[in-house]
Amino acid sequence: MFRLKEMPTSASTMFSAYASFAATTMLIRSMANELIPHPLRSSLSSLFHHLFTPLSFNLTLVIHEFSSNGMSHNQLYDAAQLYLTTKINASTQRRLRVSKTPRQKCLTVSIEKGEEISDRFDNIGLKWRFVYTEGQDQNSQKCERRCFELTFHKKYKDKVLDSYLPYVIDSANEIRNKQRVLKLYNMHCPQDGTNIRIGGLRGGWGSINLEHPATFDTLAMDPSMKKAIIEDLDRFVRRKEFYKKVGKAWKRGYLLYGPPGTGKSSLVAAMANYLKFDIYDLELTSIFSNSELRRVLLSTTNRSILVIEDIDCSMQMKDRQSFHQSQHFDEPSTFFLGVHQPSNSNSKLTLSGLLNFIDGLWSSCGDERIIVFTTNHKDKIDPALLRPGRMDVHINMSYCSGHAFKLLASNYLGLHENFENPLYQEVHGLIETTRVTPAEVAEELMKDDDATVALQGLAGFLKRKRVEDIEMKDEGVDDHKVGEAKKLRSNTDVSRIAKGIQEFQGISFY
């Protein structure tokens, strides 16, 4: 050791001493790298880190929003998010997030990033912390990462894992059942304080509350058809053990087809309201690869309805064999989901990728799910999508029938089925022989509060529609045949076909 008076004072002397020390350190480090094996160096480094790290008696569990692969949603994260809303204490929190959408009845209060919440369970002190970061994924796309950090004393690790966390999940389920609000998810839906954005790093699901008023009671549909659909839904939800026993994924596929305005979207909403299932509205045009489709679909939750509306318009799926017999195209092209695509198409989504999730190996990644396709032109869809196991129930949403008119007249004008009025009977007869959709009939009935005036307007509209139908050269069906087809369909009883297909008033059960 230098005495104070002997210590070097000049800058050059101090720099020389520092350079000598640095050179010696680098020499020792190089010799250590050459002479000491890497496993031994790692062990020594871990030992020094352990010896010189301040002793801590706390353990922190990190609960990420998604699983390690970024595809599956973390059930514990959702449970913690809901559970902690009941533990917010305004006297101890410094910052809170408050939001309210126009459709919400109450304010929504949640914790802001970096905030902490204290909790106790069987005399165990626990501290929750919400962590939120922004960054970029491997595709240079903006991504958001959320997690909860749960800190407690190390000696309670087993009790927290075995008792506390299951308690959090159970509590969240109870809260969810009491505050059950159906959600409508979409990949382009903006996120607010009440929404949960799920689905990974790019283009995740955003949600709004589903407040569609459609129910089976208000649907303009034949009563027998409604009954058949409700019975099929009830049979599906109570057959968990049956699906497990026969080795099938617990899912059900519905194809809704028919002209625009026949109530396909309303039927989907009625199914969701009846089952209390959330709806995921998927636009295939926003998916660019099979892997992205798989990631997006895996992020959907159980007890939900996946809807792909107007599948014939978004992807124009057709019979793949027809393209081998079709005319040659002038420019280079590819076939995407069985559809001719120009060569500049960037999409890598294929029909096999979609089919693999519907009833392939990936179809088992989830329970109690319903898949619904809607289309205006069933004949344009590739038959591979329509077979049993993929689309199990085919529902023909056809033109308005006499039964549907009576229900619409009751809903919109308050007219009962036994209403005796010549104009009412005239409209009923015109409905049976005119191609008109329930949406068109409903629009006419809404034009006046007076029942007589509304019926007069509807009668005039139907007569004009009949004239238009007659004048349509490209339609090979006359009004008489349309009426006969409607009457035949409305009088059809349940029958079984030899191959096991059951036809019931426009519904095919496979």
Automatic annotation (TrEMBL):
The UniProt record lists the keyword Hydrolase: yes
Single GO molecular function: ATP hydrolysis activity
Catalysed reaction, written as an equation: ATP + H2O = ADP + phosphate + H(+)
Entry-linked SUPFAM superfamilies: P-loop containing nucleoside triphosphate hydrolases (SSF52540)
Cofactor(s) needed: Mg(2+)
Matches recorded under PROSITE patterns: AAA
The name this protein goes by in its record: Putative ATPase, AAA-type, core, AAA-type ATPase domain-containing protein
